[in-house]
Amino acid sequence: MRAEPVVQTEAIIGATSVMLARSEDRHPLQQHFEDAATTSGRFVDIAAADGSDVSVFVSPHTNASFRSRRVMPGEVEATSMVLPTEGNWDLL
To answer: Is the dihedral of CA 91, 77, 67, 51 positive or negative?
Structure first.
């Protein structure tokens, strides 16, 4: 029996990248971000794939995006990663 691909979603908020838990639905989370962006700022809680709870501060100046992909169950990344996506980069 062949395993079916699963959807893995990553939330990228500023310089922070979080792999969402399978129980975390992207669309309600996206609405929470949009609601928070209409205020002067507030924290939004995220359930991460590694079991941790992450709180990010979302304001009208926050850049956020989501990336979803289909992966085989053995390829699912279970870790939350913080990636520096802002700043100056020197390319060789």
So the answer is: negative
